[in-house]
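USER: If only I could read backbone structure tokens as easily as an amino acid sequence. It would mean a lot if you studied the pair and described how this chain folds. Here is the record:
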Amino acid sequence: MKRAVLMMILGVAIMMGRDNVLQDTIDQAAPGSKLELPSGEYHGNIIIKKPLIIQGPDDRSAKIVGDGNGTVVTIRSSYVTLKNLTIKHSGAEHERVDAAVSIKKAEHVTVDNCHIDDCLFGIDMEQVNRSQITRNWIRSKPFSLGLRGDAVRVWYSNDNNLSENYVTKSRDFVVWYSHGNTIAHNFGEYSRYSLHFMYAGKNDVLFNTYEHNSVGIFFMYSQDSIAIGNVIKSSLGTTGLGIGLKDASNFTLKDNTMIYCARGLYIDRSPFQPDQNNTIENNRILYNAEGIHFHSLSISNNIVGNIFKGNIEHVVDDDKVTLHSIKNHWDGNYWDDYEGFDKNGDGIGDTPYLLFYYADKIWLLNPNIKFFYASPIISIMNFLARLAPISQPVLLLKDSHPVMFEKDLEKGVFK
């Protein structure tokens, strides 16, 4: 009965053209009420300070439109749900973090199946726990890349589920100082950082797809997390990379695909803790300019059962004094340039795979020369460097059990 009265008040107010109709209805609603918004446009900005459900039609034709200043929907209560809504036209001030939805100091908040557009930041979460951010479509304002806001900003927020969201033309999706979150089955494109972690632990990153972003997934100053089944494609440019680890310990990267990136995997001082390892297993590192790029002191990574195929350089170590790639554990990977044999037919090469660094590889010293990779002159130089190197080559890595064919990894030949 109370819900029916509220909806009648809402309908009358709409017909009267009152601007603050939705806020008035929210203020009059009892805690725990459900407001079912008919199709139409409702004026923001609104503030929710009690448990409440606001739900529109499945086609998201109920639109909450901000006034172009500040945040469109501000949530300052636990047990709030926004569902099936279109939320548009926030302010454009970074200092205020103008957003479509701002949530602070709350638990069990749900934002589901909402269409967010023309908002500087999408969903801003600060000290929000055990909440659901699912099935949303998010785009920032039409600014240059660095001036857009973040699609989702997770700050000191734990144990949340952020899944099945579609992000386009925003800046970053950030998870900072936050732990125990699940980020799964999201899609992101034409942004800067598809997913960026800092000082975060025990997060699960599962089956996301990121295309045409500057950076796919970057873990910084973090630990105890897993990334499984993600696909990162076409992260290009000078900063382009698929998955990055910086000062990251006790990570598992498994069954991911990094394809057509400037750098498939970037490892910088990881693992950071001297008594821990990172596991990089069963990933497909395909057709990148650099398959794995080692920067700074990066040792004790277990790199096992991966596919290295079609990369200009499978492994690059940019330390000009002491190469660290050799100090990682390499075993059972497939290398498309392996030249050994398998006499007993067990699917494993009879001789180790050895990758050397030749001083003549000038494209490693000058990235611009990569444009000429596979040209006749570079091919001749590469051949001569191996035939009669002008200096002693340096060993980058040794894989004692190289797998002969990609399909052998799928069949589990290497254990």
